[in-house]
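Blinded run. Sample ID left blank on purpose so nobody reads anything into the name before looking at the predicted structure. Input follows.
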Amino acid sequence: PVSLQPDRFEPNDIDDNPITPTQINSSRTETGLTIHDENDTDVFQFTLSTEGKSSDSVDIEFLHSVGDLDLLLAGPNGTSSSSLSATDRESISLAGLPAGRYLVEVVGFRGATGRYDIEFNLPEVIISDDFEPNNSLANATPIASDVTASLSIHSMSDVDFFEVALAEEGDSGDFVQITFSHRDADLDLLLFSGSSIDLEEL
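Blinded prediction complete.
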């Protein structure tokens, strides 16, 4: 095996007690990493806030002719996957995987060592907007005039309520609308009158 030095993320081995994985909080690429000896394993940790999409993955690139590296994934409820090819790239898709915490392990096959780059393509982390908390009719955000805002449905349990008081009968120039990417999420808009009556799904 090639003689290499530990990379900048060490110690992040599976045999550490406790395990100290490298935390990954968003999509990123880390280059020039190493499996530096036959006992080295590199462990990374990330959290999916929503179900994985087809564009989400973890990938490593390396020279297979120098050392055969493999990629392993472990997640909630026994979720596991691996990429064990004989090429210069290993890739694990996150499509359809449930939200939760995941561990990724890079390991040399039969004690192989080598340099590698790792790429994390993760769902965008959506944070709560400035109008939170407004998750109920009782906490609805009051709207007193025309307003346009960039907001978010930041979790599976999040709903946003707004309150508008009409001083007179509405006309054709009065409206409420939302714009979003349906590819990212299917959002709905509903109008209520009083405290609980659903008038219309717009």
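Unblinding after everyone has recorded impressions. The mean pLDDT is 88.
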